[in-house]
Design brief:
- The complex is a heterodimer of chains A (about 170) and B (about 110).
- With about 170 residues, chain A is an alpha+beta fold.
- Chain A folds into 2 domains: about 35 residues; about 110 residues, SoxY domain (Immunoglobulin-like, Sandwich).
- Helices cover about 25% and strands about 30% of the residues of chain A.
- Chain A contains 3 helices and 9 strands; from the N terminus they run αααβββββββββ.
- In chain A, strands 1, 3, 5, 6, 8 and 9 form a 6-stranded mixed sheet that branches.
- Chain A starts with a helix and ends in a 6-residue tail after the last strand.
- In chain A, about 30% of the residues are buried.
- Chain B has about 110 residues and is an all-beta fold.
- Chain B has a single domain, classed as Sandwich (Immunoglobulin-like).
- Chain B has no helices and 7 strands.
- In chain B, strands 4-3-6-7 form a 4-stranded antiparallel sheet, with no helix packed on it. Chain B has a 3-stranded antiparallel sheet with strand order 1-2-5, with no helix packed on it.
- In chain B, β3 and β4 form a beta hairpin.
- The radius of gyration of chain B is 16 Å and the shape is elongated.
- Classes of the chains: A alpha+beta (about 170), B mainly beta (about 110).
Chain lengths: ~170, ~110
Amino acid sequence: MATSQSSSRRSFLRSCLLAGAGLVGSGGLVKGERLLAYSGLAGDPGDPEVPNAEVAKILKDLFGDRPIRKGHMSLDMPLVAEDGRIVPVIIESDLPMTPDQYVKVVHLIVDHNPDPHLAAYHLTPALGSVAIQTRIKMKRTTWVRAILETSSGDVWAAYAHVNVSLNGCG
Amino acid sequence: MTIGDARIRIPDRITRGDVIIVNAIVSHPMDTGFFRTADGQPIPAFFIKDVVVTYGGEQVARFEWTSGVSKDPIVSFTLKADKEAPLTMIWTDNKGGVYQQTANVAFASA
């Protein structure tokens, strides 16, 4: 029963998507591409939106052309932040903290804040692990990026989308 | 609390080699520079921009902050307690204010 329900829902959704694609097909290629993104054919739904110019520059300055891969990192934030002045953040990583292989720095970037590059945490093996908690301000609903760099130059990231009810930046 | 009052909390009982959680808070307005007072005067940016953590005189972490960190900023991180030594944190704000606090890492006698 449950199976047939979910499969009929899936086929219903698929037909909606196809109908939608047909409708916007005449509206131009741009809309069609966006629809593809929403339907999950392009990328993971956990991927953040394409960075705006300011964030793109920050990422370029920090990491150059190195790939920013998702993994080895967790960013725990509320789905909805009622007060943008105090939004809790928990950053953790499962990567080792040994003298020859460790997490060198963790960057916290909030896409639509006035100063998106909110904080950088420079770490050493003496800390034993990566587990950072803090509280930040957020101006509006946006993606938050926690991106770490290891001592060997690898870059790993985790993303969270936070709905902000009250602007915490003025 | 007045500006710069700081506290560091570490566990009461620590055994050599433990990875402990360090909680720290410092009293600071963390003004962004975007707000105004009730009578319309702009409130200039005033925030902690740098935090240095030393353990036994050795720098183990450094945090670069902006005014995007919340008022009365808290931070927690882990530390591998492998020696009995003071853990010191020094917070520096954008107007040159320097605030310091120390907690002593000592091992519980077995």
